[in-house]
């Protein structure tokens, strides 16, 4: 039996929960999981059932409890876990899992595996050294390519900005801008709103737009200005949050590729529609958007009481992202409650869903903010600055807390807060109209 590694040596990140997939219900797997849980409390275990197995897990004495059960293996299943524990068998399933784990860079603990011969060990060592050398070279050139792309992007951006706004005017205009800033008590509330919204969004994968929209709707701003301000600020905080999730290993690359382009396209369409309707029908759109945030609050509240389902393959992820991007731009929020909650309801691991959706959100908000900027220009700088500062302060902390906080309690709190704020805004707006 291969010795099961200690979580403290595998984890690499302090206070990060460790996701384990146990393959099969053999007594060896049960003992291995219990041994891991004996010294390591922050582990979560899911079980992949194997058809025709003769053993059964001792569920009553198993520590920790099984969180979710998978009846079938899919090619993306192991990407949601930090460690795979399985009993060796010369079967197609085991060979597939070992190959997929090797390709994805996921650690595997193989129990009762036959000892390799001296020749096999030498070949494996040579292969590992070759792969390590190749990966090192690829990473080197990837870093060079990324730096060149960033340099090119900054050069192009500088050229565009200097073409429309000469740099010699910048210093004087910046002094005038700072002198004209009216940083009253409302600015502090915007910082607090940005901090709370990003803390919730970074930890749960939802809530930034909903919380910010409910706060700004109560101030009487035009709906298009609200959505533009939120997405401009959210672009910075979601970028910081996405980078933090990437650092902590919370990203599923396959899911990210499926979400990003449809999400951006939906956001651009939603922002364009709101920009042209917001000016003329702003007073009527405000109660409609309040009703929308009320429904989002109810959805969040319902999600708090949903039980985790068996993992299912995600279908039509692109359409889901497109709808989420559109509603997020047009309604000022909804990307997280729609996309994150739908993916988690499929039984997927919350930490990877939250991290991937948070990273995708940066590109969605960038597309939305750029569209609003092109159509409407910039306004409400104090509001945007407050939201940005609060969001940047909360982003790293929220990424560390992802999967650590009691999700049910936070969902209930956010849902109740959004519902109360939405009802209050609807009442004030309708009373003013009539």
TrEMBL record:
> Cellular location of this protein?
Cell membrane; Membrane
Superkingdom of source = Bacteria
What topology does the record note for this protein and the membrane? Multi-pass membrane protein
Where it mainly occurs, coarsely classed, is: membrane
One Pfam family, short name: TauE
GO CC entries: plasma membrane
Q: Does the keyword field hold Lipid metabolism?
A: no
Record PANTHER family = MEMBRANE TRANSPORTER PROTEIN MJ0441-RELATED (PTHR43701), MEMBRANE TRANSPORTER PROTEIN YTNM-RELATED (PTHR43701:SF12)
Q: Which family does it belong to?
A: Belongs to the 4-toluene sulfonate uptake permease (TSUP) (TC 2.A.102) family.
What's this protein's name?
Answer: Probable membrane transporter protein
